[in-house]
Amino acid sequence: MTRMHITTCLNGEEIDFLCEPHQSLLHVLRDELKLTGTKEGCGTGDCGACSVILDGRLVNSCLTLAAEVQGRSVETVEGVAGPVSQAGTVGLHPIQQKLLEHAALQCGVCTPGIVMAVKALLDREPDPSEREVRYWLAGNLCRCTGYDKIVRAVLDAAAELRNLPEERQPA
Amino acid sequence: MTCLVEIPTALRALCEGELQVQVPVGNVRSIVRALDERFPGFREQLGQSFAVAIDGELIHDPWLEPVPAGTELHFLPVIAGGQETQVSVNAAYAAPEDVEAAVALLAEAGSQGRVLAGGTDLIVQMRTGQCSPQLLVDVKRIPALGVCELGTEVLRLGAALSSAVLREQPEVRRVFPGLVEAAELIGSEQVQGRASLGGNLCNGSPAADTVPALIVADATCIVAGPTGMREVPVAAFCTGPGETVLGTGELLVELRVPRPPARTSDAYLRFTPRSEMDIAVAGAAARLELGDDGRCRGARVAIGAVAPTALLVPEAAEALVGSDLGEDALEAAAAAVRAASRPIDDVRAPAAFRTHLVGVLSKRVVRIAASRAAGEPG
Asked: Which residue intervals of chain B are DSSP H helices?
């Protein structure tokens, strides 16, 4: 089978890759592009570990073919944090920082998917209710935390983002 | 000389409950053979794909790996969900930009071609081996299939329109609250971002949430094929589980939903054990038109997940039209719905429970549609 040449915008950067026509975006991200932040949980669209943002929409990368992203824009967890500062500290996004502060992860396999799902939510709705957060995250399975700490972290991150002055808002 | 083998949890029953066994040293192949002699079936149950850890060092492809005396060996069988989830087929991919090109591709591929819209059903089916098409025709780059346009007489919904886009149209939600609430019940946010209305219909699931809602809305399917366009009423589109009226080379292009008359509204309700990420055990949709006197002037009731396809139930509508929508009329409609349903027993519910549920849901959904038609909030 002929491999396809795909050009796409990945985390703000124009990139090219080759893929099999039936290869999932998840496998291209992990195996070809070596962006292993995006995880495979179920491979059937149930667990959300592979969540990425495609043209502004939250999607499961396991149910997206790599060939479909030609000319589109893909955001993965690798693009969420800011650059490393001169002091050597990583500029974590407030969503990531709050997940850490609230101890909202244990094994961490679901976390990249949660970060992307929460980013998609807060990009749309800066002030979600707890109920909205819980419904929005229904497609992200976490078997460690019981979700409560995740929900607290999300509400806290949302509050922090709302209070940040414009010039300090993450890109 | 021996080494210590830790028996994997999944194989402990086969190994008479042993947690650890001493086995003569050799290589991994000889150790598996020794274990298979002692516990017949060990080799088969372990499978071909596994890794081992020898004194904590992980070794992939381990068959010939030597296992020295005194070492501790762990087998790591492949966990389901790992390497089994690669799409195993060699399907080609095409993304035509107009309906004619898509139809030509599908006609040429015949039974080997499949339409790819959101992929939330198709890609899973390919991965589980339920289908193995040779050609995937991605229709999301065809502008006509992404239309969402509410005109003065009709709502036009492109077949590849995702639930996420549909939900963001406040005017569509105002006019068709039941249709939008059915669409937004499907799957997670991630699934909503991809799953299409047309896909929900073409997948032919008896439990599809949007189908009863489209039936009460009296939607028409616009189908393109090698010999031109044709129209199919949505109630006649699905012919059985996983089966539709689409023939070779045919493509669902659009759903056309007439704007309802004044003082008319719709609703959809389903029952699921979980509040999210679940499949309807039973579903019911209703569209109610009220007269100036508040009595029911027109009604359409449809049910899902209780027959091989979603069904329109005209007898339920007859029980409602002309009534004051009081308890007697609602009970008569529920009885008609129960009589029309032909559910199966399966893992999600016994048939008798489904029949009971669909009656309850139809009463509730009629009440909701009626209060919306009357302009009551909520």
From this structure: 28-38, 42-46, 99-109, 122-127, 163-167, 170-175, 177-183, 189-192, 197-202, 210-216, 314-320, 327-340, 351-373
